[in-house]
Design goal:
Layout (H helix, E strand, L loop, with lengths): L16 H12 L12 H11 L4 H14 L3 H6 L2 H8 L6 H15 L7 H5 L6 H12 L8 H10 L9 H13 L8 H14 L18 H4 L17 E11 L2 E6 L10 E2 L1 E2 L6 E2 L3 E4 L4 E10 L11 E4 H5 L5 H13 L1
Parallel strand pairs: 1-7
Antiparallel strand pairs: 1-2, 1-4, 2-3, 2-8, 5-7, 6-7
Helix pairs in contact: 1-11, 2-3, 2-8, 8-11, 9-11
């Protein structure tokens, strides 16, 4: 096959793709995920939002705690956003938690869950693929998903070139995803899960297990020996680096934390004071990477009994209580280290 043959729009999809994927899934797929039992709109929605950017194994305990505290959308809508963020603490991408809470209030205000993909897309923080994943799993609607796992599989299987963030590439992938859908609505919940499972467990980012993939014989990337080149990565751009010094103030078993304003980076979360001139003992510096920049953090541990140890408005928290607050992952990690030392 010539290199570009696979790139023409309108390629016939792999024969019997859905049936073969489902056959694979019935033996090797995940059938015991907590949000599958039962697959209600509420549970599927919360799970899909948590699964954006986060792996299944990480999500499971967060999902369980979330469901234990907020049994339904009414409970979630009525909660204070700080409690939602506290349960989100450590999962990252906190805008998801804030949007989930806002969307719960929208749903309650509108008298119930949206009944189709476009209705879900109108809610805070829900894009096309997440909306499709919800209606496909909760209602059995024929909607294609295109999350990171599915993009990777399609790029390799069909030899799709170019970064998926480019419009033409994205349109081609959506078209393929739609062409491959099974005809029967009742297959949609398992089919949707099967796509995610194949990408997460077989067609993995590094070292995919092509020898156990049901599509090995059809796969353009395998035929052309280009598995490691596809999908085409985002064009490289060096991330900018920002540097901060964090003042960890400790007063016996209490710690000084500052609550950030809502909105913006780590909005509504509790952090250490950021200072120009630190005091106390330097702890090992480390890097935390966001999508758009690296944050190089230099923490300083200072034992003090001052009532207001930093210019920022903050509060003294008993360590145990501090650990239950909504915290960014690097703050939580440092607090746990402080706790181990004390
Ligand atoms: S054969 Fe390999 S590269 Fe192709 S879809 Fe399967 S796991 Fe992915």
């Amino acid at each position: 096959m010539k290199k570009n043959d696979s790139e023409k729009v309108g390629d016939p999809p792999v024969k019997d793709f859905a049936q073969r994927l489902l056959a694979w899934h019935s033996v090797h797929g995940r059938h015991d995920l907590p949000w599958q039992h039962p697959r209600t709109p509420y549970r599927v929605w919360v799970a899909e939002v948590m699964l954006q950017q986060t792996q299944v194994q990480t999500v499971i305990p967060y999902f369980a705690r979330f469901m234990a505290r907020f049994a339904d959308v009414e409970a979630l809508a009525a909660a204070d956003v700080s409690e939602v963020l506290a349960l989100w603490s450590g999962l990252g991408y906190y805008a998801r938690g804030r949007n989930l809470h806002r969307a719960a209030q929208q749903i309650v205000a509108e008298g119930g869950f949206p009944m189709d993909r476009l209705g879900w897309e109108a809610l805070s923080g829900i894009g096309r693929s997440t909306a499709a994943a919800i209606v496909a799993q909760a209602y059995g609607q024929r909607e294609a998903i295109l999350d990171g796992n599915v993009k990777r599989v399609l790029c390799r299987l069909f030899g799709v070139e170019g970064w998926a963030g480019e419009r033409a590439v994205s349109e081609r992938l959506w078209m393929l995803a739609e062409q491959l859908l099974p005809a029967e609505c009742e297959l949609m919940p398992d089919y949707t899960q099967a796509q995610m499972d194949l990408g997460a467990t077989v067609c993995t980012r590094s070292r995919p297990r092509c020898e156990v993939c049901p599509f090995e014989k059809d796969c353009v990337a395998v035929q052309q020996n280009r598995v490691s080149e596809l999908p085409t990565p985002r064009p490289r751009k060096a991330l900018p680096v920002r540097e901060v010094m964090w003042q960890i103030c400790v007063n016996d078993d209490r710690v000084w934390l500052v609550e950030r304003d809502q909105g913006g980076l780590w909005g509504g979360l509790h952090v250490f004071a950021q200072v120009e001139t630190p005091r106390g003992v330097p702890l090992p510096p480390f890097r935390h990477t966001f999508t758009h920049f690296h944050l190089d953090i230099a923490p300083y541990l200072w034992h003090t009994h001052l009532p207001n140890p930093t210019p920022d408005t903050g509060a003294w928290w008993p360590l145990q209580e501090a650990l239950a607050l909504p915290l960014p992952a690097p703050v939580k990690k440092l607090l746990m280290e402080v706790q181990d030392e004390s």
